[in-house]
Amino acid sequence: MEQGNQFGKFLETLRGKMSLRKVASKSGLSHAYIRDLELGRNRTTNDIIKPSPDTLRKLSQAYQYPYTDLLMKAGYLEEASSWQTPNEIRLDNVWYVEFGTKSIKYVSQDGIVEENVESLVAFTSFIEALMDLQFAKMDMHLFVNLNKIKKYAHSEGKLYFDSYEDAHYVTIAAMAQMKYHQTLLDCVARNTGVATQTDGDSRHLSLKAKLLT
């Protein structure tokens, strides 16, 4: 973690000219607590305080600042470290991974395995491992294995991991759809051996994605 109250000063720099109440509205945190974080102490008790990973997630969204970078600056991440997945998990067989504040959920054909974690130290190397296996970050807490997608229902934002009716699916955010639209279509075609057809809405989404990237 950055020494002394440097992290608090960094948060204040991130806020810039934005008012505390504006940040409170964007993050769901109280403006008084945000100011306490900037000062590095609780002004009522004078105790030193440190934001939780969940608080940092909310601030990263409010400031549009990378979540993992905030975690690193706050001391929750280390650059050079390794991550061990549960023994029964093979990442290349996993459909998608969901991150909670203190848990990691692995979803695959074999079911769901949830791992409780005490901290997010070594998180960075784990993300790199996911990327190497062609997982794509769909939002702040969801990584999807592009090699396992069998159907993409773009009008509903659903990714299916088998082609039969009532197959397991996960829903992705609209921004992720726009960013990965063509990639998802290509992955479905590659994974199933069947070329996907795009309609007018699909072409419109693809155009919006290009404009936003």
TrEMBL record:
InterPro entries: Cro/C1-type_HTH, Lambda_DNA-bd_dom_sf. SMART domains: HTH_XRE. Residues 17-70 form the HTH cro/C1-type domain. GO terms for molecular function: DNA binding. This is Helix-turn-helix domain-containing protein. It comes from Paenibacillus silvestris.
